[in-house]
Amino acid sequence: MLRKVFKTGNSIVVSLPREMLEPLGVAEGADVSVELDRKHRQIIIRPAEKPIAAGVDEAFARQVSEFIARYRPALEALSKK
Q1: 52-66 residue pLDDT tens
Q2: I need a labelling partner for 58 at 20 to 30 A (CA). Which of 11, 35, 52, 65 fits?
């Protein structure tokens, strides 16, 4: 798919079609990560990683997620008491 590069204000812009953005969960106003791959002369645009709550280590968040997945039935039973 070819797209035009154009100027708007002091920025250079490439518009992205909705049908490419919707499957990524990216909409107007969303944060994206933009990376330059100099070796392959590519610009890589990805949905921005949603930050984990302030002060929560990524490894700890993963362990909690795994714990919940493993013990979900027991946790749900306890929440009903």
Answers
A1: 677 777 788 788 888
A2: 35
